[in-house]
Design brief:
With 283 residues, the chain is of the alpha+beta class. It has helices at 2-22, 24-35, 45-56, 118-130, 140-158, 166-175, 190-198, 255-261, and strands at residues 66-67, 90-91, 95-96, 181-186, 203-208, 224-232, 237-241, 251-254, 277-282.
Length: 283
């Protein structure tokens, strides 16, 4: 009798362990949802433009400001107008751009070219933001067609589409989408990234994907990956659109996680030896 009871208890224990294991991603996401900070309200690109235009004509701009360390100027040496007005030490405490989302596999087909399409998806999300596409998931058919269009453009331009560097991705933004320019920032600081985000510029980040530790990735995760920083919270976290998972919309990473994982593609050599650099695409 005792032996039977022990067997039943063992079977129940095994069943519980098996259930936890098979549902580990869902459990992890649930835990993240209940422990992560509230994401600030998302700001559309047109709102950023209107704020800048109001500053240019001398109108008051009602923006919540909190004292932070000295804000880092933009690449031309000036602080973003929508961020700083009158006091160079004031900058917004938390911010979130309304960047629409797509995974790199819009129809959940992770065969080629989609499993190599994080760069294309990241660039398209930034372009869609500048085009005024609403926040939220982009229609799968629309995103799928656009990703494939970028892939074909890359094949003609580079002769390949896999593993493009941030500079190559920036070149696509100019030549395919006609964006005004792009900038690369080597060894960026968290403050530099924040400053560009508040100026209305999502930041494209290349990464050693496995260092991101995203539980939604198929283990062990991508060697090389690309994500979009769309905002940040006041408690040290970046708000990102991570195309490597269907759950990547407004996905939260610690500052340290992103800064540590940040590495550009370096021709197939050890990815952690790739440069620390980010891409800013201007509309």
């Amino acid at each position: 009798m005792k032996w039977t009871r022990n067997c039943v208890e063992l079977i129940i224990l095994i069943a519980i362990i098996a259930t936890v294991y098979t549902q580990r991603v869902g459990i992890s996401n649930w835990f993240r949802e209940i422990t992560e900070p509230t994401v600030p309200e998302a700001v559309e690109y047109k709102e950023v433009q209107e704020a800048e235009e109001a500053v240019e004509v001398g109108e008051a701009v009602e923006v919540e400001k909190t004292l932070l360390p000295e804000p880092v100027p933009l690449l031309d040496g000036t602080p973003p107008k929508a961020v700083v007005e009158g006091n160079a030490d004031d900058v917004i405490e938390e911010f979130n751009l309304a960047v629409p989302f797509t995974s790199q596999a819009p129809h959940a087909n992770w065969d080629l070219p989609y499993k190599e399409a994080c760069e294309e998806a990241s660039l398209y999300m930034v372009h869609a933001y500048y085009e005024g596409i609403a926040e939220g998931k982009i229609a799968a058919d629309t995103a799928d067609a656009e990703i494939l269009k970028i892939v074909e453009f890359e094949k003609k331009l580079f002769g390949f589409y896999e593993d493009t560097t941030v500079e190559q991705t920036g070149t696509i933004s100019e030549m395919m989408y006609g964006h005004e320019k792009f900038e690369l920032i080597e060894n960026p600081t968290v403050d530099q990234i924040k400053t560009h985000v508040v100026a209305g510029h999502p930041v494209i980040v290349p990464a050693a994907g496995r260092l991101l530790g995203n539980p939604n990735f198929t283990a062990p995760g991508p060697i090389y990956h690309m994500i979009v920083i769309r905002g940040y919270t006041k408690d040290g976290k970046f708000i990102t659109n991570d195309p490597g998972t269907k759950n990547g919309e407004a996905y939260i990473y610690d500052f340290d996680t992103v800064m540590n994982a940040m590495h550009d593609w370096n021709d197939g050599a050890e990815i952690t030896e790739g440069k620390k650099v980010v891409l800013i695409v201007y509309p």
